[in-house]
Amino acid sequence: MAARDGVVVCPGSYDPVTNGHLDIITRTSHVFERVVVGVVNNPLRKEKTLFSAEERKALIDEATVDLGNVETQIFSNLLVEFARELGAKAIVKGLRAISDFEYEFEMAQLNRKLDPEIESIYMIASPEYSFLSSTGVREMATFGGDVSDLVPTPVAAAMTKRLGDR
Ligand code: ADP
Question: What is the CB < 6 Å shell around ligand 1?
């Protein structure tokens, strides 16, 4: 595979996007020609997300505006189907700790079974972000913690507003 070859998908809930996600998206954009950030819209999920899929997409768009080969799309079908529709050759995900590994190992095997042509590629989290998750950021912000070092400024502002509205 030539460097900067092909389309890949970086899927996730992104509720909200964090600096850890952006690190993976940026590094992926240096390797592949086109990166589609796939925002999962799962209306069947029991827990309600803090932000709607459209809001999550808008926050990612704003944070990736300077990356010329990155775009964001919302999807509600199976990840491999979404990847196939885009003509993507791979799914790229971040791997933080051993705790991520077991789940991702299972997902990668399942996705390969569904479509052997689409590879799952894992990028190791940068050490400074390896502790960072959207859930952690949401919990911190809910209890008034300062998240300004963990998420882009517009995301921190949107969280303060949303949590204040509740
Ligand atoms: P979270 O687990 O934070 O709720 P998502 O479900 O939105 O995240 O995850 C999208 C992708 O980003 C997953 O592949 C996840 O492993 C990865 N990811 C999330 N946070 C980080 C981080 N801090 N560093 C590297 N990858 C991450």
Answer: 12-14, 18, 20-21, 24, 93-94, 96, 100, 125, 129, 132-135
